[in-house]
Amino acid sequence: MNDIRLGVIGLGNRSDLVELAHRPGSGSVVAAACDRDPRMLALAEKRFGTGVRTTLDHHELLDAGLDGVFVLTPDHTHEQIGLDFLAAGVPVFLDKPMAITIEACDRLLTAARAYRTPLYVGHNMRHMPVVVAMRDLIDSGAIGEVKAIWCRHFVGNGGDFYFKDWHADRRNTTGLLLQKGAHDIDVIHWLAGGYTRRVNAMGGLTVYGDISSRRDRSGQRMTDWLSMDNWPPRSLTGLHPVVDVEDLSMMQMHLDNGVFASYQQCHYTPDYWRNYTVIGTEGRMENFGDSEGAEVRVWNRRSEYRAEGDLVVPVHTPTGTHGGADPLLAAEFLRFVREGGATVTSPVAAREAVAAGYAATLSLRDGGRAVDIAPVDPDVAAYFAHGQK
Fold it and tell me: DSSP of 256-282, one letter per residue?
């Protein structure tokens, strides 16, 4: 098997993902790397070997003979970089979220179809064991027909993860209800078997906006300041100079198949995990934990309060980041580049996750009004539904 030649745009925290795809002599090699920070580029040879080509400008790699490219840059740059490589005929891996507006996502979908260039979006939670276990239970009929899904996301490291760098500026993300929530919204859609068509939301900047300590952290990575000792939230220092995204938000969704859903996100909880409750016509289920030691409990007999379910499914978490999901994500993209065909992730679903988060953010900032979401153009949706053929 000849190695496929890969490029990576963006060598920040998420670039650990591309190291999973760097297997010289075993099918794939990182042949080119791009980052605007020369200090990050200087580490590329150590990470990917002396043969790696490095550049500050991604345009120099459009005709570099790459078989695929990982775009792992800040969210607001995804659209233009993605469009450039799609036009050049280079299969694209876009990290989630796909983009920061509905219109940007639609332009990417349209370009991928027009140029017939494979497009993949890195919604790794579709490979997370706890999510897969819940999906399998739904498919087996364990709770009947899904009617409602509730998700609570406790973002315990939110201050360090999202309020000390570019994430805190809405120009780069639209908001964390989209940026962080895109994962969970996609999971809600996947478990429910539908997409959001009407949404409303409320929330605000309730804690971190009161912190006056600000700092320009150019050249640093999140790992440089992350510490479990950064507690309680109001004691944090060195926040990004611009902090105008919400740290507390909640949204309600009505899906096209009649399912109702809700999503809540808080960035200053002491614990860090997400909890899904799925209610069907014949029972309900709920996950307890989302990493090693997690389990899914199912209740399908009438009773008063019972902590233990009628069915308890232990969830084993394999090695690898994001609960073992990232190695599966990278492997699926590599297979997609080589062979094409159906994937667990979906560019259309990625657009729909952004659409719900984007519309919810509009609602949140406009008094909680209901916002309707138009679906993807049917011809474009059909192209992706048939494996991008």
Answer: TTS-EEEEEEES--SS-EEEEEEEETT
Q: What is the DSSP string of 329-381?
A: HHHHHHHHHHH----SS-HHHHHHHHHHHHHHHHHHTTTT--EE-PPPPHHHH
- Of 303, 298, 301, whose CA–CA distance to 285 is shortest? 298
Q: Distance between CA 371 and CA 377 in Å, rounded?
A: 19
What pLDDT score does 1 carry? 63
* Among 369, 329, 359, 377, CA closest to 17: 329
Examine residue 375 and say whether the peptide bond preceding it is cis (omega within 30 degrees of 0).
no
The b/e string for 166-178 (b: 16+ C-beta within 10 A; e otherwise) is: bbbbbebbbbbbb
- CA–CA gap between residue 66 and residue 50 (Å, rounded): 17
Q: Locate tokens 């309600």: which residue?
A: 252
The single-letter code of the amino acid at 48 is F
Residue with tokens 């048939």: 386
- Give pTM, 2 decimals: 0.96
Give percent helix, percent strand, percent coil of the chain, each to the nearest 5: 35, 25, 40
Question: 149: Cβ–Cβ under 8 A, 6 or more apart, which residues?
Answer: 188, 191, 192, 259, 260, 261, 262, 276, 277, 278, 279
pLDDT tens column, 207-250:
999 999 999 998 888 989 999 999 999 999 999 999 999 999 99
Judge contact between 240 and 168, C-beta under 8 A.
yes
Rounded mean pLDDT, 181-199:
98
State the average pLDDT over residues 19-25. 95
| C-alpha span between 201 and 214 (Å, rounded) | 28
Strand ordering across the sheet containing 119-122: 53-55, 28-34, 4-9, 68-71, 92-95, 119-122
Residue 7 burial by Cβ neighbours in a 10 Å radius (0-12, 13-18, 19+): buried
Rounded CA gap, 132 and 266, in Å? 24
